[in-house]
Amino acid sequence: MNNVFVYCEIEGTTVAEVSQELLTKGRKLANQLGVDLNAVVAGTGIKNKVEDQILPYGVDKLFVFDAEGLFPYTSAPHTDILVNLFKEENPQIALLGATVIGRDLGPRVSSSLTSGLTADCTQLEIGDFDDKKSGKHYDNLLYQIRPAFGGNIVATIVNPDHRPQMATVRSGVMQKALYEGNAKGEVVYPDVAKYVPETDFVVKVIDRQVEAAKNNLKAAPIVVAGGYGVGSKENFDMLFQLAKELHGEVGASRAAVDAGWVDHDRQVGQTGVTVHPKVYIACGISGQIQHIAGMQDAGIIISINNDPEAPINKIADYVIVGNVEDVVPKMIKYYKQNSK
Ligand code: FAD
Prior knowledge:
The chain has helices at residues 17-33, 51-54, 75-89, 100-112, 192-195, 233-245, 254-258, 289-292, 324-338, and strands at residues 4-8, 10-11, 14-15, 37-43, 61-66, 93-97, 117-121, 123-130, 137-148, 153-157, 165-169, 186-188, 222-226, 249-252, 279-283, 300-305, 318-321.
């Protein structure tokens, strides 16, 4: 049986969180299929530095490609590593982060192998498929689930005939967890020159600037998010005040970002950040599917909306029907009073 592969991204010698999230998901898929979970990582000076960040997620076999020129990432050598490795190993599933690197690498690998690729999946599952056209039945395909047609439908995409079934997933969409079962944990260090021709190293990265994240939205335990119903940039200050009191972070809908009330890096949803806070307070947010995609796994959802029929109220645990500008100052006032 062919295995599940995860491409692990690194920054120096640090494995990206999105890769660990994908390893966790990959392990579950491999268990369902009764196959191994394999991982591949490529960089410079990473031997004995990355293994401990990858194996605990339940990896049976890890391929570490360590050579000069493999970090910082450039397209050609990483593409050849995956293409040539996948030709040898024939994985049935290959997962990558929907990051700048994954978005560059995934399509190059899938087009070289003439397999399919579904970008930005929000769920991955195993299931059967009956092809009505050919009358063929397929067992155990990867359901690559994501919003499609501008978010109006949630599509389940399958790739019955070509391998690997490739998907990218954005950071934060899957949850990472160390594996509690037993995995083989084998590590191999292939000869990079066998996979990557010298001509792949023509591009040299001369300088890089890595910007630190401006907020902690992704990891915040409490998110106070504002939508178009907040009404103005000034009103957003109230949300920042409430978030400060609660030791949380401010998020926003795309409508609020587009209105220029808050920076884009605070956008929650399909084309923003995915968050899993303990508490999500949605202020003046209607709850369109593209927004919900980024926050539906929050522990408790509180909606503040002057429309009792707002779609977000259907997934909210608590609904406060009222105007943001009336409710939020009261929340700040009473929280301050009661938390002393
Ligand atoms: P609205 O839909 O206008 O809702 C405003 C809400 O505020 C209403 O429910 C209203 O009842 C309420 N309200 C009004 N006044 C008040 C008040 N004074 N007090 C209390 N409540 C009030 N959106 C995202 O958020 N994230 C994404 O990542 C994202 N990606 C997208 C990707 C694509 C391809 C597309 C097509 C769209 C995407 N969108 C995304 C946009 C999305 O479809 C919605 O347009 C957007 O989420 C709406 O934002 P909103 O809920 O703030 O605004």
